[in-house]
Structures are given as structure tokens and as C-alpha cells.
Amino acid sequence: MIGRRQQVALALTAVLTAAAACQNHSRQEAAPQGQPAPTAARGFTLVASGDVLPHTSVIERAGFDAGGNGYDFRPMLAGVQPVVSQADLALCHMETVYGADGEYTGYPLFKSPPEIARGLAATGYDGCSTASNHALDDGAAGIRRTLDAMDQAGLRHAGTARDEAEARSVTLHRAGSAKVAHLSYTFGTNNIALPPGQPWAVNLIDVDRMTADARAARQAGADVVVVSVHWGTEWQDAPDRLQLTLAQRLTASATDGHPDIDLILGTHAHVPQAYEKVNGTWVVYGMGDQIAGEMYNGEGAQDPRGNQSTLGRFTFAPPVRPGEGWRVTKAEFIPQLYDLDAGRVLNLNRAIAQGAELEGIRDRIRDVVLSRGAAADGLAMGE
User: Fold this and answer.
1) Is residue 10 part of a domain?
2) pLDDT per residue as tens digits for the range 189-221
3) pTM of the model
4) Residues 84-110 pLDDT 10s
5) Residue 18 domain-assigned?
6) Quick count: other Cβ atoms within 10 Å of Cβ 328?
7) Which residue spans adopt a coiled-coil conformation according to this UniProt entry (predicted)?
8) Contacts 24+ apart (CB under 8 A), 145-150
9) Domain of 105: which CATH number?
10) Does residue 12 lie within any of the structural domains?
């Protein structure tokens, strides 16, 4: 379990470690003949998923799965546990904050059971983005409870903060032989003002700040920088102008010829959106809702797309030559569905293989994901 003070310490330690590595490099090259060579750098796989948005029906289902003794979200996520747990690094998006003492609510002001953090960790997730339009649904207290519960579950987090020191720290994960920084931002907080005296409580989208944070993460020792962005127009399959413009600007940002950001993961729109390679960097405009109750679109009609989503899986390889950066060598998406009747997240490819009649849903997700030409850049549907 890594608390907020440890996050700050990790960021500082990463800077010192990076400096020490540079100082020791020449000594490693000059090691006497016959000694073992330094361990080769190892690549890693990163899996990411969309919004966890527990409506009242979802909370009730987790209570039923716990047999009336609290809430158990593990059965709900068991269908994707094999994919998530096999990744070297797995990231989710926790859209809501947590309540306390049984005071849990769904839409419009969410307060979710803190047991969901344990369910996500047990599924294999290592961390979550937490900057969203619902991040202030219960003010600063909601943020504190949420991050405390994540810490207790061993689940890292990025995007919201309990104090200024935490807001300034860098969330670093170890994956393979890489240090991976995770940053998180949202377009807004549903017109709820930031807590008085706490402008750092929720990270808001600002392209200059985002690129500066990415560079700071590199200075803190990150080999790979992943940015989660809560953006887009709800119920729109295609990315909107803000998404397209921001993706262009973020992926164009570079330092010494190397991209400042290596992967962008989008959430918020409630529906799966396209994947696209922009300026050589993969952008997922929207992964959709991994967990949500019955969803109603802007016209007030129940919309099944609100329970459809994707898992993104990206394989990173270490630099081939000195001075080069880490790179994505394989990009995949895995179509998912939250089955409202069963209260379960389904890996659609595996569900179809077991005889479920879900091909139409899977094919619709595939067509949307590939709608901006990602297949030509190597994106494939995974199992």
C-alpha cells in the first residue's frame, strides 16, 4: 500500500535514482570481462478500461453478490479478470467518489461503496484515473474517502488530491523494466466549484499544464507517460472538436525530439469511440462505460451503447538504441459489455465463443473503434 506521503517520496526517489543510474552507466560498461552483463530491459503490456459508474442498480447488485454483508464487486468484474490480471500494468477510470456508513447513491450525485476499490484491485487493476465531472459530487470529503479507500486496497490513483503535496506528486508505476507515469484530467466538474482554498483538488484540462506535467514526470524518472482525459460529447460515437484539437496538440508536444506523452486514454462519452494514431502516438478517444446501470441518452431514451466499452491493450518495447524512447509495438482492443440482467462485465469475444448471441454488439463496437483508420496503423481486435 502506497500512501500520499509515499507518493511524494517515490517521485523524489525517482529523480535521485535516475541521476544515480546516469552516474553508474560508465562503470557498468567498464565492468571486468567475465562478469554478468546488466539485465536486459524488459517490455510490458498495459491494459486500460473505461468509466466505472455505479448507478443504484449496480450498487444493489454488488450488495446481492455479497450475500447481504457489505458489497462485493469481484463477481461483476470476473469476466475480464483474466485479461486485466495478465497485464504488467492495468489502469481503470473511477468516475465516482465514495460514500460512507451505508450512504451510497447513484445519479445525479454519486457516492459509491468503497468496497469497489477492493474489487478493482482483486481483478488486477494497479491504478485508476480519478479526475472526472463527478469528482466533486461530495466535495473534498468525497475525494478524501475515495483516495483513502484506494490506498487501503493498494490501488494507485491520479487526477484528484487530498493536499497540495499530493497534487504535485507524480504517480509512478513499475511495469517490466519501465517506470510509467499516470496523469489524469477532466473537462470540468458539473459546475461544482473547487473546494475553497483547494484549487489543486481536481486536475482540469489545460494543454500547457498537461504538457508541463508530462515533462515533469520525465524528470521524475518516467520512461513512459500515460495521460487519461475525461472529455468528449456524451452519446457521440465520433470524437468532437475539443478531442481532436487537444489530441493533436498533446501528441505534437516533444522535448529533444521525443514525445512528451506516449499514450492518451479517453473517458466520459458513455459510448465507445475510435482509436487513432496521432503524430505517431496512440489516442483512445473514448473507451465507454465499463460498469453502469441503465443508461438514457440526451433524448431520454434508454441507450444500450451506454453499457458497451473496450479494453485497450498496448505492448511497449524498450529503446533499441541509446537516445531512443519506449514505443508501442502492438495495439489491441477488446470489446466489452456490461450485462444489465446478470450484473456482469463480459469480454464479448469470449462470451461469443461460449455461444452467446452477441456478435452484432461486438461488430458495432469494432466498426466504431476502427472508424478513423486505426487498422491501417496496426490496431487489431484482441481476445
Assistant:
1) no
2) 999 999 999 999 999 999 999 999 999 999 999
3) 0.90
4) 999 999 999 999 999 999 999 999 999
5) no
6) 20
7) none
8) 145/97, 145/98, 145/99, 145/100, 145/114, 146/94, 146/97, 146/98, 146/114, 146/117, 147/4, 149/98, 149/114, 149/117, 150/94, 150/117
9) 3.60.21.10
10) no
